[in-house]
Amino acid sequence: MPPAPLPGMDRHGPSPLLRFILSLTALAGIAVPLWLVTHTPKPLATTSEQPVRKRIQIRPQAPPPPVEPVLFQDLTPEQARAANAAVPFAKGPIRAASPFHLSGASDDQERALDCLSAAMLYEAGDDPTGERAIAQVVLNRVRHPAFPNSICGVIFEGSDRRTGCQFTFTCDGSLARHYSDDAWDRARKLAKAALDGKVDKTVGMATHYHTDWVVPYWSASLDKLVAVGGHLFFRWTGWWGTPPAFRMRYAGREPRIPALASLFDAHKPPAPDDETVDAASVSASAIPVPVAGNPDVFLVTLDPRYDPKTLGALAKRACADRQYCKFMAWNSAAQTPKTLPVSPTAISSMAFSYLRDAAGGFDKALWNCTLFPAIASDRCMHRLVRPLSGKAAGFSLDHIPGSKRADHDAAQEVPALSGVHRKPAPPPAKKATPDNQVDPDI
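Structure (tokenized):
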């Protein structure tokens, strides 16, 4: 007898009901996973998986605006004040600059502090509020591409010409003004704070200012931000006055400013190259003899084996303890004069000169840097650039750099400045003719 069929089965196979249930189950096995795949939310991407968005920087298409010279409209102080008052202040908040932190070698940092404190004091006077505002403008300029990227470079930009200077005290004779030691101390403390990150929020990102009793031509094209004491502060309009424009890095190097050499040791000329050589180390056999009949003058043909840097030591060894001594040297015997006086032609071909005048407090060596280009520039002779006048026929050794000058030249001396951190005032000198230039009109 055949076995009985299973439940849901007949002798011909699965019953219709079972086949329907199996088909429905198979269909669900396919449809449910498909629905889950298409409808399940995607997991959040991790930081490393998130797409990188390209940063878009908005920068101007034009170069930085030109820095205009200091030229004023022809107005009386009263007219200028009225004109300035008629210009409205820019709308909107004044955004503070980011902190500035000084960097660089110690000598560069010292020169930066010297320049900034001088600008603050000579521009604002002994007024802490005004000094802080001036310091902020300087630091804003350092970080703006339209200006030099050093403190001293910003302050003394264009100081060699009256209408080109950016800070008027650098070209109008103000450096002859005297300030007390206490005033210098206060200015230096405020300058140090600014260079250590202290921000003056009052003037924001201002890059320009002027006193309210003048009207520079550039003021009409800038946004007037704020008045601080007797000064009005401005920024450039448009993108160049916004924070992204102040993107330049501080150089970390500061130039020596000759105009500050009488105030600050860090701005004195570097030690001359010959000071690295001890005069006593020069061999006695190498010491030349003076001109016959004039024991204070040496006319020398240089040995080509000499290191140019040793010439100062050689001259000092030759001059020994003389109170007045002239040492003049040439590179060839054909150029070297044999007797006095020295002709203008010989003067122009001179390779090296040294003059000591103890009575006048003068002791200086100079090189012909065309022949010795490795010598520091402040030790170079200035060459004559125009023919000698008729007085050249009487040219003598007293007309070389550093020689004695007429009394009227001394009357043109700028008075010695006093104040903190300044070196002792030098003895009176005659500077009508620069120490490293022959005066052809003597």
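The two ends are 152 Å apart (CA to CA). Residues 16-39 form the longest helix (24 residues).
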